[in-house]
Amino acid sequence: MGVNSKLLTPYRGRFAPSPTGPLHFGSLVAALGSFLDAQQHNGSWLVRIEDLDPPREQVGASASILRTLESFHLFWDEDVLYQHQRHALYEDHCQQLLALNRGFYCSCSRSQLKGSHHIYPGTCRNHLQPQNSPCAIRFRIDDEELCFHDQIQGQYCQHLRKDVGDIVIKRKDQLYAYQLAVVCDDHAQGVTHVVRGSDLLDNTPRQLALYRALRYPMPCYAHLPIVVNETGQKLSKQNQALPLSQQDPRPTLLHALAALQLHPPKELRSNNLDDILLWANNNWNPSLLSKQRSSLCPQHLL
Ligand code: GLU
Q1: Is the preceding peptide bond at 205 cis, omega within 30 degrees of 0?
Q2: What does DSSP say about strands 103-106 and 136-139: parallel, antiparallel, or unpaired?
Q3: Which of 62, 76, 90, 292 yields a CA-CA distance of 20 to 30 A from 16?
Q4: 193 CB within 6 A, ligand 1
Q5: Pocket flag, ligand 1, residue 13 (CB < 6 Å)
Q6: How far apart are CA 48 and CA 288, in angstroms?
Q7: How many of the other CB atoms lie within 10 Å of CB of 42?
């Protein structure tokens, strides 16, 4: 069945980095795309630090990401929100989903699920009470195809039960899962437009399933091309993406704009950041990126 994103006004967009390392070129492109989209709609642009998973985080990364955004003149509206301060909201949603019979307790170990190729086979679907051993909480996925229209990638469909199975919303180690937290926070912050990297395209139906179960209005989505190296891998801390220098951001900003198919005229390229961003704001056009899933990183920024 199809799911139509509802256009809510006023526009509220966001950039939601996980502080696993400093900002690199790939995350700058995602930040810039969502910033320009919000600016062009005269909307608000929020920054949310997704610090849900302390073992994966790097000390000082949140502050460094925020400083780098500022050095590129990507200034956000409202206070930065930190997910580590929002556990009560996530717990409340877990309890709501359990009460709606959309959540269940799962005591399966990794080794029990080993042969299932990352598709949850439904082993604990009838466990409505916590078991004696530590439990995760999973969200019960309906047996149907879920489709949505992405403003860049077009129509995207997934049969979640077949491809993914019931998803974890609270882990066995009691950490809340990204899929749950992102929905709770986008809703709580009134986010109307999610503009982010295409690596998250196939996570979106899971999030839409949660929106539906919670009866929350769904945001509009646009998944930007992700920046890849010459072997097609997404830039990330794991493949040694360089942290962005905060000195002389202009050439890097121009490369990031090029990754979004924006090529300011020659005479503007030596102007200040604000002039370049103003031009980009006037010229931002997500349809130039139509169906583009990736963009190659300039060699010197790898
Ligand atoms: N925190 C996620 C990441 O850094 C992004 C989440 C999102 O934009 O929905 O990959």
Answers
A1: no
A2: antiparallel
A3: 292
A4: no
A5: no
A6: 27
A7: 8
CA 71 to chain centre: 22
E strands of 107-144, at which residues? Answer: 136-139
Query: Which domains, ranges and CATH numbers included, belong to the chain?
Result: 6-301 (3.40.50.620)
Which tens digit of pLDDT belongs to each residue from 164-189? 999 999 999 999 999 999 999 999 99
Among positive and negative, which fits the CA dihedral 121, 176, 141, 193?
A: negative
Best substitution site from 14, 37, 50 to test ligand 1's pocket, by max atoms within 8 Å of Cβ?
50
Rounded to the nearest whole angstrom, what is the distance from the C-alpha of residue 46 to the centroid of ligand 1? 13
Rounded distance from Cα 133 to ligand 1 centre (Å): 31
pTM: 0.93
**CA 179 to ligand 1 center in whole angstroms:** 10
Own/partner pairs, 130-135, CB within 8 angstroms, 24+ separation? 130/105, 131/105, 131/107, 133/107, 134/107, 134/172, 134/173, 135/105, 135/106, 135/107, 135/172
Inter-residue contact 181 to 48 (CB < 8 Å): no
C-alpha span between 149 and 172 (Å, rounded): 33
> What is residue 98's three-state secondary structure?
helix
